[in-house]
Amino acid sequence: MVPVAAPIVDVEALATVVAASLIAGIGISCAFSLAIVGASGFADRRREGRAVAAAASLLLMAIALGVCVVGIVAGITVMTAK
Amino acid sequence: MDSDLLLIIVVATALAFDFTNGFHDTANVVATAISTRAMSPRIAVAFAAVLNFVGAFVSLEVAATVAKGIVEIDLITPTIVFGGLIGAITWNLITWYFGLPSSSSHALIGGVVGAALAAQGTAAIKGDGLLGKVAAPAVVAPLLAFVVAGASILLAYAIVARLRPGPVNRGFRLGQIASSALLAVSHGTNDAQKTMGIIFLALVANGKLNPEADVPQWVVVSAATAIALGTYVGGWRIIQTMGTRIIKMDTAQGFTAQGAGASVILAASHFGYPLSTTHTISGAIMGAGAAKRVSAVRWGVAGNIVVAWVLTLPAAGVIGGAVYGVTSLFGSDTAVGPIVILALVLAAIAATFTRRARRSSTIAVAEA
């Protein structure tokens, strides 16, 4: 059964907005939180002289920040490309 | 000649609306960053102004919706556009005076729809566009921002749960610089385009543009400049409501609220939905607050904001219709009516500011 609102409301477009907002909003918040965990871990491990653990934390921070940057740049690129 | 003068008045009024939009909405963009002390007020406002300008160049989908998706472009005259703009400006100033963060976007759409209804009846309104492109997203956006911000803050708290508060606060405070930037860009993208759409509508109504033409570059640049200047001048009165009266926020909440607001506005702008940035960021702020503790949100203040939202479309519509009615008494294609209305509006604004200045000085004397 087709919903009555379907011809008026572009349900597909609205659903895409919902999905994109959830993925971008929650994804970037989680990635940035992980970057903070990485940065904090790096500072602590380096102070403790644990080079390998510090490098792992640094890697976590770099990857998480990379995810944030890529997500933002991809979002803006998709918008400007239309 | 007279129609050209009328067009100049309408374009200048549209840019004045754009200025008041930036002025009125500064709080939406900067309040969270200021209240968590991620940025000083002066820097936050300047930062937002520059990025609002940049954001105006990102997309033109919302401008197309405002110009062609809500009213029948063939039935619109410059006088109707003028009535709608004055309706929106008047409602923006009323809500600004009372410190209510209502929606400039809905005021604009309500004003234009009200003026078009008064002039041409229901034939001038695209009901499908109004429902599908304005009403449905207007309901979805704040709820979506609420959910995104709520889920984001819960996950963020879980991820950083084992860390000391110092590094977490410093980290999210830095993050808020980026999330403020994104929010300012998204605000410029969605809101400046509404003015571009209105100016486009006026240019088509005046016969200067074909309805199928692209939005001229001078329209994009002037709308971007007006909203950026309005943002820079700022609406300090509303910042207080948005930043501290809805909830007291920590830096993580500020970051997630801004990120949620920006993601919803940018995604909606891509599909040409003329959202209210005020609704969206308020929803995000409440989501970030309620997820931590439901009682942290001052629901009474939130309720007042909801009342302002509900009133905006009809109130701006009534004012827009009334302005069209008065303007048309002087003739439908003459600049006399708009000049008279502008003179009355400017006199009312001057009287309001004078009265307020007198009241402030009386209070200062009494306190001394």
Describe the structure.
The complex is a heterodimer of chains A (82) and B (368). Chain A is built from 2 helices and no strands. Chain A has helices at 11-47, 51-81. Chain A starts with 10 loop residues before the first helix and ends with a helix. The mean pLDDT of chain A is 89. Chain B is mainly alpha-helical and 368 residues long. Chain B is built from 13 helices and no strands. Chain B has helices at 2-35, 41-55, 61-69, 78-97, 104-120, 127-159, 165-205, 217-233, 236-245, 251-270, 277-292, 299-328, 336-367. In chain B, helix 12 (299-328) runs antiparallel to helix 13 (336-367). Chain A binds chain B through residues 5, 7-10, 13-14, 16-18, 20-22, 24-26, 28-30, 32-37, 39-40, 43, 68, 72, 75-76, 78-80, 82, and chain B through 58-59, 61, 128, 131-132, 136-137, 140, 144-145, 147-149, 151-153, 155-156, 159-160, 163-164, 167-168, 171-172, 175, 178, 182, 185, 189, 252, 255-256, 259-260, 262-264, 266-271, 273.
